[in-house]
């Protein structure tokens, strides 16, 4: 009976190690002020991580989990956030200039005082109050998609 438990433990351990090769989990990690600029971070998990003042400019964050992540004052200029999960994230004073958030999940995200010049929010559903707040400061055209920021937010 003891041998069977050890064999099962080794088998499941190997499966978990294999999964780690495809995406990295940074759940609850302190990554403040780290430089990730220009990197491909596709499918990584930054749930509840602290990325305050991190440099994520021109990164590929497609499909990344940023659920309840702190991104205050982070530089996300030109980042690809297509399909990323930002539910509950704080992006206070974050730089989202020219970022592409097409299809991202952002319910309950806090974008207070964020720079959204040239950002593309196509197919992003917002709380109406957040959408109105972003429309007050939205401007520019995204250089990658060619879409006007105000149009992607359906601003009046």
Write down the overall mean pLDDT: 88
Give the C-alpha Rg: 18 Å
Estimate percent helicity: 10-25%
Question: How large is the share of residues in beta strands?
Answer: under 5%
Morphology: globular
The overall strand count is: 0
The helix/strand series, from N terminus to C terminus, equals HHH
Taking the sheet with the most strands, its summary is:
none
Please work out how many helical segments DSSP would assign.
3
Supply the helix-strand structural class: mainly alpha
What distance lies between the first and last C-alpha atoms, to the nearest angstrom? 69 Å
Q: Which spans of ≥5 residues are poorly predicted at pLDDT below 50?
A: 1-21
List the topology elements.
Elements: H1 2-20, H2 128-137, H3 149-152
